[in-house]
Design a protein that fits this description.
The complex is a heterodimer of chains A (267) and B (69). Helices cover 23% and strands 35% of the residues of chain A. In chain A, strands 1-2-12-9 form a four-stranded antiparallel β-sheet. Chain A folds into two domains: 108 residues, Gyrase A, domain 2 (2-Layer Sandwich), CATH 3.30.1360; 119 residues, RNA Polymerase Alpha Subunit, Chain A, domain 2 (Beta Complex), CATH 2.170.120. Helix content of chain B is 43%, strand content 6%. Chain B contains four helices and two strands; from the N terminus they run βαααβα. The N and C termini of chain B lie far apart (26 Å). The mean pLDDT of chain B is 91. The chains are: A alpha+beta (267), B mainly alpha (69).
């Protein structure tokens, strides 16, 4: 297996994986979406809410805020799912918030107003509006975040995009091509370009294998195929974990599952 | 998509969009092209773009009907 990084930043990772089975990468993809744990607010204790939003709406909005995640000091999602989070510091992080609008007008409550007792577990962005308070209104609450998995609720899923596709192969037979430019015109991804004496492929990975060019060509000069063992994988994180961490954790989970299977077979 | 307050995440893909609303609103109000502002804020997919493009903040209307107002 050979891996090339095509693009990489804080949240997005695009890699090209050569010599792999699709089934293997797909199982990793499914684990990333549904099983890699992250932190998210699960219980909210509302102390005072005189805003226009119902407690439930505020609790829901708090739950959706992505939190930076650490694994080493909190219990597993399965072990903590039924615990009373307020009294289980081994499972949960306490976050609190107390904001009151002055007498002069509006006060927007931001995710940055949430104070966390663990500095490593905090909102990934400080600028998410949670509520807007009118003159003299107050919002005070305690929230408890725990590890969870995407299959329980999507708020725990670490990825917004986890997808892959085959590497496209665009074959242009220059003996048959008459440079009519129809394939260039019809391509929805603008992959092709008509240079003076031939059709050139700008970026193969932009091709979505729709084969519009094949249909448009009257001389069968262009052929689209793909390499089944070379996959372009795109991963976009919510910010809770780094893309690299998500991949590493997904392989760990897959390994654990396979070991469990082997154990059953061994018995 | 008339909502009381900007949703935290995109309904379709789950990407965080709530934190981009105020920048988006301010810059569009100042006369910038909404599409360009979205590109600039890194909102690429059309599911996320519609969240910001079609949002109307109604919470300020609601607040005028509450006490203390």
């Amino acid at each position: 297996m050979k891996i090339n990084v095509l693009y990489r930043d804080e949240k997005i990772l695009k890699i090209m994986i050569e010599d792999v089975r699709l089934e293997y990468i797909n199982s990793l993809r499914r684990i990333m979406i549904a099983e890699v744990p992250t932190m998210a607010i699960e219980d909210v204790l509302v102390l005072d809410n005189t805003s226009v939003l119902y407690d439930e709406i505020i609790a829901h909005r708090l739950g959706l805020i992505p939190l930076t995640t650490v694994y080493d000091r909190y219990g597993s999602p399965e072990g903590c799912a039924d615990k009373e989070l307020a009294s289980s510091p081994e499972c949960a992080v306490r976050l609190y918030l107390d904001v009151e609008a002055g007498e002069n007008g509006y006060r927007i409550v931001y995710s940055g107003d949430l104070k966390s007792e663990d500095p490593d577990v905090r909102p990934t962005s400080d600028r998410i509006p949670i509520a807007v308070l009118g003159r003299g209104q107050r919002l005070a609450l305690e929230a408890y975040a725990r590890l969870g998995r995407g299959k329980e609720h999507a708020k725990w899923s670490p990825v917004t995009v986890a997808a892959f596709k085959y590497k496209p192969i665009i074959n242009i037979n220059e003996d048959l091509c008459v440079l009519c430019g129809k394939c260039v015109e019809v391509c929805p991804r603008k992959v092709l370009e008509l240079k003076e004496d031939k059709i050139v492929v700008l970026n193969v990975l932009d091709c979505n294998l729709c084969k519009s060019c094949e249909e448009a060509c009257e001389f069968d000069a262009i052929k689209i195929s793909w390499n089944e063992n070379t996959l372009a994988f795109t991963l976009e994180s919510t910010g809770a974990l780094k893309p690299e961490q998500i991949i590493v954790e997904s392989t760990n989970i897959l390994e654990k599952k396979l070991n469990t299977l082997l154990q059953f077979l061994g018995d | 998509m008339i909502e009381v307050i900007i949703p935290v995440r995109c309904f379709t893909c789950g990407a965080l969009i709530g934190d981009k609303w105020e920048d988006f609103k301010r810059r569009v109000d100042e006369g910038e092209d909404p599409g360009k502002v979205l590109d600039d804020l890194g909102v690429k997919r059309y599911c996320c773009r519609r969240m910001l493009l079609s949002h109307i903040d109604l919470i300020y209307e609601a607040i005028t009907f509450t006490k203390p107002s």
